[in-house]
Structures are given as C-alpha cells and as structure tokens.
C-alpha cells in the first residue's frame, strides 16, 4: 500500500525539538514535530482553542505549548491537556529508511475544529 503513504522528505529536515509545516492542497496545513527523544508526530497546524499555529510552539516531551495562550496539546492524541478542552486531528506518520511518510487519506480528511466566537 505504498501509494497510501506520501513521502514528505528526509527526517533530517526537522531538528529535535522543532517542527515544520506542510501545506496541503485542498486541506489543512499540517505541523510535523520532532521530539527530543526522536519521535515524529503530525497534527493539523491549528490549536483547538483559537487556531494558534502549533508549529511555532515549544515542544516538551510529547506535548507542544501553543504560542498564543499556552494551552498544552498532546502530540500523540491532539487533545488539550489539563482543564482545557478541545482536540485537533492527528495524522499517522511513519519513518522508513530515514524518510517521513504521512497517511494520504488522513491528510485529506483532517479538518480543524470550529472555534467558538
Ligand atoms: S490559540 Fe492556542 S492556546 Fe489559544
């Protein structure tokens, strides 16, 4: 099922503790995170609170702190942590021979949650 996975380039393009964004034609921008312990995660690049750019947040463990109002979002589940409520879609990502792959169907289906006015 190789065609189901989209090659988005080498793992070395994102240094540990950082993120990069990936535009998706007809879909949401995706944020790809590289944690300090060398795991990769992909989420829609919109905080579930007010759509802050999660890719610009601080990565700690398997969470990212949103740069706008400091909500903490799980990179594994996309869920807001603590007392905050909300969830952003995650995209399955895999590493193979030093390259990153995203699941095509999840990429197209991912939609950011509505933001309360
Ligand atoms: S937009 Fe992310 S915490 Fe408010």
UniProtKB/TrEMBL annotation:
<keyword id="KW-0408">Iron</keyword>
<feature type="domain" description="Rieske">
    <location>
        <begin position="6"/>
        <end position="102"/>
    </location>
</feature>
<keyword id="KW-0560">Oxidoreductase</keyword>
<keyword id="KW-0479">Metal-binding</keyword>
<dbReference type="InterPro" id="IPR036922">
    <property type="entry name" value="Rieske_2Fe-2S_sf"/>
</dbReference>
<keyword id="KW-0001">2Fe-2S</keyword>
<protein>
    <submittedName>
        <fullName>Nitrite reductase small subunit NirD</fullName>
    </submittedName>
</protein>
<dbReference type="Pfam" id="PF00355">
    <property type="entry name" value="Rieske"/>
</dbReference>
<keyword id="KW-0411">Iron-sulfur</keyword>
<dbReference type="InterPro" id="IPR012748">
    <property type="entry name" value="Rieske-like_NirD"/>
</dbReference>
<keyword id="KW-0534">Nitrate assimilation</keyword>
<dbReference type="InterPro" id="IPR017941">
    <property type="entry name" value="Rieske_2Fe-2S"/>
</dbReference>
